[in-house]
């Protein structure tokens, strides 16, 4: 069933035409009608300055050759400061909108391709999980429940929480392809922990609570995506994933280095208390506007940092026990590198620093970093390592080059600067 869902989603996305008119661009079809219905010869926008104030900006245009899609794309992907990457982007000034119109066709094409790349990431991510799910199923059918004790249910639960947090983040940004990737992660991870619960390798109480959280989270996100969830309920869900993420992140970081440091739940407990205090202060209006803005970005950043931390325990294990590197699968690391690498062009194109940082970190540290370890300890050949490294460098280079062309920049460094610091 998981494979069928992923195959259907990927197939629909990959079958999209690269060249599409403003009335049929599929990725934004859910929101385009409300943008285009208001476009006429006189368009009124809001131009926000850096202090949060706004002033009306009227764009008078009788040029019918100017595509509304270019304005819509530029509205959505205006570069913003990295710490505000989860916030809606205001429309560019008129002169920048006119400039971007010259690259309208190039931008539409690269927008379509980056969306396809993000959707295609489902394939390696699905292949990454299926072998373990299949092995667990075989052990369950053979009655070998003890074999499932080798799978760390706490690690899987951490990844599941990160998936739920990022699903909420991408649902707010209407990034459909990225939502599908997170949903695939949620489904496959939930199937895996269900197997662990069946083998009694995961406490039944934790599994029941996890099932409630997963069901609530997925339903809430999709209702919010389609605009039919009351804001009060969505606020409660965001408080939950914020408090949960802030509690889990420091605890996972601390636990990585046990027994070299004392085993303690103190980091998670302290973070939980601080997160609860922050949530209460936000809901009671005790925080400043900047504090509320910072709080709103926490859930996305904690989820990103959880994913960024996931390679660290493996690299730490490689450092302490180099002989265990032979037990790593080069194919698994290659799939992890490919899945995260396919997300990089979309994150760069949308000027989403949080998304770009998480995808790049996982690509370089988890995928390529473990491949480097395997090469240094003679687990893979020199030719395989060089081919993988060259392919990765070419992919990242092409992503930056195509992005600079789409935005009309003379240098890829301009795209990187916008990603970090905004326009």
From TrEMBL:
<feature type="transmembrane region" description="Helical">
    <location>
        <begin position="264"/>
        <end position="282"/>
    </location>
</feature>
<dbReference type="InterPro" id="IPR034628">
    <property type="entry name" value="MEX1/MEX1-like"/>
</dbReference>
<protein>
    <submittedName>
        <fullName>Maltose excess protein 1-like, chloroplastic</fullName>
    </submittedName>
</protein>
<keyword id="KW-1133">Transmembrane helix</keyword>
<feature type="transmembrane region" description="Helical">
    <location>
        <begin position="147"/>
        <end position="171"/>
    </location>
</feature>
<feature type="transmembrane region" description="Helical">
    <location>
        <begin position="178"/>
        <end position="199"/>
    </location>
</feature>
<feature type="transmembrane region" description="Helical">
    <location>
        <begin position="294"/>
        <end position="312"/>
    </location>
</feature>
<feature type="transmembrane region" description="Helical">
    <location>
        <begin position="240"/>
        <end position="258"/>
    </location>
</feature>
<feature type="transmembrane region" description="Helical">
    <location>
        <begin position="384"/>
        <end position="401"/>
    </location>
</feature>
<dbReference type="GO" id="GO:0009941">
    <property type="term" value="C:chloroplast envelope"/>
</dbReference>
<keyword id="KW-0472">Membrane</keyword>
<dbReference type="GO" id="GO:0005363">
    <property type="term" value="F:maltose transmembrane transporter activity"/>
</dbReference>
<keyword id="KW-0812">Transmembrane</keyword>
<feature type="transmembrane region" description="Helical">
    <location>
        <begin position="355"/>
        <end position="378"/>
    </location>
</feature>
<feature type="transmembrane region" description="Helical">
    <location>
        <begin position="205"/>
        <end position="228"/>
    </location>
</feature>
